[in-house]
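User: quick one, sequence for these C-alpha cells?
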C-alpha cells in the first residue's frame, strides 16, 4: 500500500535511508524508486539526476545549518555571541555526523566526485556555503562591535566548521570509538573560538 505522503517526500525519504545504509555510490535511482514505491520515471519528474537528489537530501533531510546561519545574519543580536556560536557548532556537528556516511563514498570514485561537484556548482550549492555563511554572520557581529575589529572572520568560520566536520570521523579509531558528547563539544568549541576573536 502506497504511503499518503506525496511522491517527492517518499523519494527523499527512501534516498536518505538508502544513502545512509549503502552509501551514495551504491544507492541507485532504481532502488530509491523501489523504496519510495514509485517508478524511476516518477523519480525523474521530481529530480533531474541522482546528484540533485543527493543535494536535496542534504538540504532537506539533515540538520538545517544554512537556514540557521541565514537567520543569525538577519538577526545577529537575538542571543549572545557565545550562545549563537554554540548553536552553530551543535547544528554543524550534527549535519556533518549525518552527512559523512552518505558522502564518504564520493571520495572513493573520482568520476562520481567530479559529477557531484559539477552538479553542486550548477545548483549553486556546496560545502563552502556554510563557511561563507558563518563568515558573513561573524562580519556582521564584527561591525556591531561584538567581534574584535582585527579578527579574521573567515579563518574563524573555517576553524569552527572544520572542527565540527572532523568530529564526524576523527574519533572512530580511538580506544572507545566514541565521539565527544555533542553539547559539551559545541560549548567548548564556541568558547575557544570566542577567546580568539573577542
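Assistant:
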Amino acid at each position: 500500500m502506497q504511503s499518503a505522503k506525496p511522491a517527492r517526500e517518499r523519494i527523499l525519504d527512501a534516498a536518505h535511508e538508502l544513502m545512509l545504509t549503502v552509501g551514495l555510490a551504491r544507492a541507485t535511482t532504481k532502488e530509491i524508486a523501489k523504496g519510495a514505491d514509485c517508478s524511476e520515471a516518477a523519480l525523474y519528474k521530481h529530480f533531474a539526476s541522482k546528484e540533485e537528489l543527493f543535494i536535496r537530501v542534504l538540504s532537506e533531510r539533515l540538520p538545517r545549518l544554512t537556514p540557521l546561519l541565514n537567520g543569525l545574519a538577519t538577526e545577529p543580536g537575538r542571543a549572545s555571541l557565545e550562545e549563537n556560536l554554540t548553536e552553530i557548532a551543535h547544528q554543524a556537528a550534527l549535519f556533518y555526523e549525518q552527512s559523512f556516511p552518505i558522502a564518504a563514498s564520493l571520495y572513493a570514485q573520482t568520476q562520481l566526485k567530479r559529477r557531484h561537484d559539477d552538479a553542486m556548482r550548477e545548483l549553486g550549492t556546496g560545502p563552502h556555503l556554510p563557511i561563507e555563511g558563518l563568515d558573513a554572520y561573524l562580519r556582521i557581529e564584527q561591525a556591531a562591535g561584538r567581534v574584535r575589529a582585527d579578527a579574521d572572520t573567515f579563518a574563524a568560520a573555517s576553524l569552527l566548521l572544520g572542527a565540527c566536520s572532523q568530529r564526524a570521523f576523527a574519533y572512530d579509531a580511538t580506544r572507545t570509538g566514541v565521539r565527544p558528547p555533542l553539547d559539551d563539544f559545541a560549548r567548548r568549541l564556541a568558547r575557544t573560538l570566542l577567546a580568539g576573536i573577542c
